[in-house]
Amino acid sequence: MLFLVRMDVRIPHDLPAEQVNEIKAREKAYSQDLQRDGRWKSIWRVVGEYANYSVFDVASNDELHQLLQGLPLFPYMQIAVTPLAQHPSAI
Amino acid sequence: MLFLVRMDVRIPHDLPAEQVNEIKAREKAYSQDLQRDGRWKSIWRVVGEYANYSVFDVASNDELHQLLQGLPLFPYMQIAVTPLAQHPSAI
Amino acid sequence: MLFLVRMDVRIPHDLPAEQVNEIKAREKAYSQDLQRDGRWKSIWRVVGEYANYSVFDVASNDELHQLLQGLPLFPYMQIAVTPLAQHPSAI
Amino acid sequence: MLFLVRMDVRIPHDLPAEQVNEIKAREKAYSQDLQRDGRWKSIWRVVGEYANYSVFDVASNDELHQLLQGLPLFPYMQIAVTPLAQHPSAI
Amino acid sequence: MLFLVRMDVRIPHDLPAEQVNEIKAREKAYSQDLQRDGRWKSIWRVVGEYANYSVFDVASNDELHQLLQGLPLFPYMQIAVTPLAQHPSAI
Amino acid sequence: MLFLVRMDVRIPHDLPAEQVNEIKAREKAYSQDLQRDGRWKSIWRVVGEYANYSVFDVASNDELHQLLQGLPLFPYMQIAVTPLAQHPSAI
Amino acid sequence: MLFLVRMDVRIPHDLPAEQVNEIKAREKAYSQDLQRDGRWKSIWRVVGEYANYSVFDVASNDELHQLLQGLPLFPYMQIAVTPLAQHPSAI
Amino acid sequence: MLFLVRMDVRIPHDLPAEQVNEIKAREKAYSQDLQRDGRWKSIWRVVGEYANYSVFDVASNDELHQLLQGLPLFPYMQIAVTPLAQHPSAI
Amino acid sequence: MLFLVRMDVRIPHDLPAEQVNEIKAREKAYSQDLQRDGRWKSIWRVVGEYANYSVFDVASNDELHQLLQGLPLFPYMQIAVTPLAQHPSAI
Amino acid sequence: MLFLVRMDVRIPHDLPAEQVNEIKAREKAYSQDLQRDGRWKSIWRVVGEYANYSVFDVASNDELHQLLQGLPLFPYMQIAVTPLAQHPSAI
Fold first, then answer.
1. Are C84 and C3 in contact (CB under 8 A)?
2. C79/C68 Cα distance (integer angstroms)
3. Which three-class secondary structure string do you get for chain D?
4. Between chain F and chain I, are at least 3 CB pairs below 8 A?
5. Distance between CA D70 and CA C10 in Å, rounded?
6. Long-range pairs for F74-77: beta carbons < 8 A, 24 or more residues apart
7. Which residues are paired to G51 by β-bridges?
8. End-to-end CA distance of chain D
9. CATH no. for residue A52?
10. Can you give the residue range of the structural domain that contains G12?
């Protein structure tokens, strides 16, 4: 079951740099693990913004929320989720 | 799997009254069938508006889209879907 | 009398972690008390967001405001209240 | 129980003038009946707009929706309802 | 001359509690003085929000601004003013 | 007492041209009468839009609403009114 | 080069049904041709809406505009284009 | 003096095709005349939309409004004008 | 050449009071100098807000930006500029 | 390939002045290097705002994102990118 997810990152400018770097490193590993297991199907940078559009393939709303809530950057992100369905023109 | 759905109805004022009544009658029957089979769990009128908030319980995004697209009023509605997950404080 | 309530939580990132945890613990207890006495009928997590949609069943606007204002997270939440009425198609 | 209600009137310009006048006459009578029985406590024109702010005093959400849905201009209005509570500074 | 005024209070979370309490006490006294002299005709809490809708009856725009600007909470509020006129259906 | 008023004109494209011209001629005369008697102090075109910003000087909200409601283009305009007060830096 | 495109379809309700059907048939064929040649990489229905999110893979902005402008439903769609870039966490 | 102008075209779908074509032909000639005399410096299509961004170089606000108001598509466009100034980093 | 300018002031609450007062004193002097030389034609307080609407009469966009950028409160203001033109109904 | 880019700068007021100046100096040098090599074709100040509109000429979305992400002010800017195409009326 597919979902389009947009994540906008807003890190407070007074967070210490080493803490930010540590969070980003964990975020990258977390994301790549999910990409490898097939649930985080695609991730693209929005040009000019600290933001991404991603496609997730999960079995349920609860699974998706668990994945997103576990993101190391979750406390610093605004996330918008759009449920997707099969399009009748898709080949 | 639960979804909160808001439907705002906008029927063009120049649609013939009998056509509108026929669509509304089919809409009501369609809605009540889905309520009886448990997939349209709740439906509430938004006070002061020709709109409703509903909760759907379906197995997938595709099933939800099929149900919504089949609404007789679908061509005259603006619909917004919010996927819901289990809340950690829910008892 | 039913109300749909959306609560978006925005905790300032410089609030001490122990204070946040203490507030959250009180929030959970407060919410579960109201769920048990039947006034907080439903609570769902919005997928991907630190937010919930809830349905309250109260006797008056004043009662609802007292409940919401008493939430331990109230100072850190943006709350939107939608009054609901019986829908003519509800079975 | 008090509610602040804003009503914006949007009458399609191709509705026949006599039909519009007849609806407005019924609207006025309907409004004045409710003002006399105390449920439509106040009505003010928004300066420069075909709109009003009103205060309703009703026993329930359902009663308010019945009153609003019965407005002759209901099909041509956009209505926004805000539930009000007692303010702690009110004397 | 009537005005509908909405005030949304946003107190920074790092303002010391005693300072907040002192401001709120002055705010309450200030509001009640104006209610007693008839210029602050009504004040209602918006359910679920740290906000109010109020009706003011003043002789001029300048008088209204002086009253609002003098609110002890003025630096921490977002205020929206809507001028009201007599409604032709008002009895 | 001053008010800033923005008027956006939206004439339906299927209104007959002679009717539009007749309305515009009456609008111009109406506006110029009010400019001459000093109540419509200023009127400026918004560059690139069929819209104007105007400053009105009237004795009350009711007087302003009567003037605006009497505009021949009133049924085809969206109007926004901002009450103005004396600025402490004005010389 | 990837672009995320959202298309919202708004067909006027007074367009003859056969004309609508003919446009939709051409739209489907047009879309499937582009999917087969690899430039229209993905198309998903937005649940509950007459809308889709699509990913296009084209050589230039001009090529993308030509593809979109050629859509048989183009005159009846609102389209929003977001340019995408490689994400540093993508595997 | 430079201005950035965005024009969004919204032609009613029930305007006869020959009338639309005639307007568009005049629009193109009008635009190209102004491009040749240097006042309409640039015009770009917004990808995926019936809209353009343009840069105008004119001597005054009044001149710009005269140019825009004279556009054959003016009655069917929504126009937004942004005044531009010299940027300190421009070479 | 006229411009309507709206300025909304947002001073961070943790700026020292003496610094704020010194900025405001310079702002007032700066504004009054420009009012005296005729370029800042009008300034009005928006009722209930820490904001003003002003009319500027300048020779160019660049001149206007220089004036606005030089405001002592510039770093703490949100400014919106609307270019104005002669209105055909102005007398 | 052309893109219109709007950048709004929001520097936190508690960033030390010397740090801000150092960032701005690097920003200016960075911008002028890109203007000289032809990829940053135009940059204009938005009148009254700490913002600019710019036109970039790049070979790909990825190249544009690299340029924008490298801006010394990138962490303090909100950026919006609009892809542009050849306009059929352009000469």
1. yes
2. 9
3. CEEEEEEEECCCCCCCHHHHHHHHHHHHHHHHHHHHCCCEEEEEEECCCCEEEEEEECCCHHHHHHHHHCCCCHHHEEEEEEEEEECCCCC
4. yes
5. 40
6. F75/D13, F76/D13, F76/F9, F76/F10, F76/F11, F76/F12, F76/F23, F77/F7, F77/F8, F77/F9, F77/F10
7. G8
8. 17
9. 3.30.70.1060
10. 2-84
Mutate to test the interface with G, among H11, H14, H47 (most CBs of G within 10 A): H47
Kindly list the distances between the CA atom of residue H78 and the CA atoms of B57, G72, H5, in Å, as whole numbers in the listed order. Answer: 42, 24, 10
Torsion angles phi and psi, residue D76, rounded to 5? -115, 20
Q: Is residue B91 part of a domain?
A: no
Residue F43 to residue F32: CA distance in whole angstroms? 10
Partnered with residue A42 across adjacent β-strands are A55
Q: Which residues pair with E52 in a beta bridge?
A: E7, E45
ipTM: 0.95
Going by C-alpha positions, the residue among G30, H49, C89 that lies closest to residue B53 is C89
Between CA I26 and CA I36, with CA I32 as vertex, the angle to 5 degrees is 145
- Is the pTM higher than 0.90? The answer reads yes
Flag whether residue I47 sits within 8 Å of chain E, measured between CB atoms.
Answer: yes
Instruction: List, for residues I22-72, the tens digit of each pLDDT value.
Output: 999 999 999 999 999 999 999 999 999 999 999 999 999 999 999 999 999
Quick check: is F91 in a domain? Answer: no
- What would the pLDDT profile of B27-72 be if each residue is shown by its tens digit? 999 999 999 999 999 999 999 999 999 999 999 999 999 999 999 9
Distance between CA atoms of residues B42 and B56, nearest Å: 7
Express as a percent the part of chain H with pLDDT over 70.
100
Question: Mutation test of the interface with chain B: which of C3, C57, C84, choosing the one with the most B Cβ atoms within 10 A?
Answer: C84
| Total domains in the fold of chain G | 1
Query: Which pair of structure tokens corresponds to residue D7?
Result: 């009503």
Copy the structure tokens of residue C68: 């919401």
Residue G38, chain A, CB below 8 Å: the answer is: no
Strand partners, H66: none
Mean pLDDT of the region H47-54 = 98
Closest CA to D46 of F61, E58, E39: F61
Please name the helix (run of DSSP H) or strand (run of DSSP E) that holds residue G2, with its range, or none.
Answer: strand G2-9
Least Cα distance to G84 among C86, H84, J81, E19 occurs for J81
CA-CA distance, D43 to D82, in Å (whole number)?
15
Judging contacts by C-beta atoms under 8 Å, the chain B residues touching residue A83 are 3, 61, 64, 81, 83
Structure tokens at E75: 């630096």
Angle (CA) B79 B80 B81, round 5°? 120
Does residue J91 fall inside a structural domain?
Answer: no
CB contact under 8 A, G44 and A88: no
End-to-end CA distance of chain C: 17
Contact indicator for G3, G64 with CB cutoff of 8 Å: yes
- For residue G11, the one-letter residue type is I
Per DSSP, helices labelled H in I1-91 are 17-36, 61-69
Q: What is the DSSP-derived secondary structure letter of residue I59?
A: S
Structure tokens at H28: 């193109």
- Please list the residues that pair with D54 across neighbouring strands: D5, D43
Distances (CA, A) of C61 to C57, C58, D57, I7: 10, 8, 11, 37
Distance from CA of E31 to the nearest CA of I (A): 15
Q: Where are the beta strands (DSSP E) in chain B?
A: 2-9, 40-46, 51-57, 77-86
- Is the residue at A90 inside a domain? no
Query: Mean pLDDT across the stretch H4-29?
Result: 96
Q: Which residues pair with H77 in a beta bridge?
A: H9
Buried b (16+ CB within 10 A) or exposed e, C36-69: eeeebebbbbbbbbbbbbbbbebebbbbbbebbb
E4 → chain I, closest CA residue: I48
